[in-house]
Amino acid sequence: MNGHVLDDTKVHVKLKIAALWASTMFCYIYGDYFELYIPGKMQGMLQGRMEPLGPVTQEILLGTSVLMAVPSLMVFLSLVLPPLVNKWLNIGLGVFYTAIMLLIATQAGWIFYVLLAIIEATLTSLIVWFATRWPKQGQC
């Protein structure tokens, strides 16, 4: 019977959280890519519009770049930051991005975008959950 038990290595919370941020980013990327297929989207882009934000400006592009860069950076930061900073940064940013995704899920008109927003909100909620349950030293 023991010969049939599969090996299972304990995964550190830092790796779990980094993987969740990476998964979240994949959903962001696919959502933004699939959004390009929505009729009229490309025409709006060619006219310099970023819906629902309106006309494209440097400030709009900077803001959206920051919004998208933070989760990307959190993949790395979740692995290297000291535990206490790591825990609270992941809780704060996880709550923030969960709120954004829930807002998008309620506002999105296309069902694929609602689905991805719900998945993203679930992933960022899991980030918060794992960060709040960060093990004490010796429990890993």
Structure description:
A hairpin with a 3-residue loop joins strand 1 and strand 2 (54-55). This protein has five helices and two strands. The protein has helices at 13-35, 41-46, 58-80, 83-107, 111-132; strands at residues 49-50, 54-55. The chain is mainly α.
Number of helices: 5
How do the SSEs run, as a string of H and E?
Answer: HHEEHHH
Number of domains: 1
Specify the helix fraction band: over 70%
Overall outline:
elongated
Q: Estimate what percentage of residues fall within beta strands.
A: under 5%
Q: Cα-atom Rg, whole angstroms? A: 18 Å
Number of strands: 2
How far is it from the N-terminal to the C-terminal residue, by CA? 28 Å
- Low-pLDDT stretches: none
Main sheet, how many strands, which sense, barrel? 2 strands, antiparallel
Secondary structural class: mainly alpha
Placed side by side, the strands forming the largest sheet appear as 1-2
Q: Report mean pLDDT, rounded to a whole number.
A: 91
Brief overview, please?
By secondary structure, the chain is an all-alpha fold. Helix content is 71%, strand content 3%.
What is the topology?
Elements: H1 13-35, H2 41-46, E1 49-50, E2 54-55, H3 58-80, H4 83-107, H5 111-132
Antiparallel strand pairs: 1-2
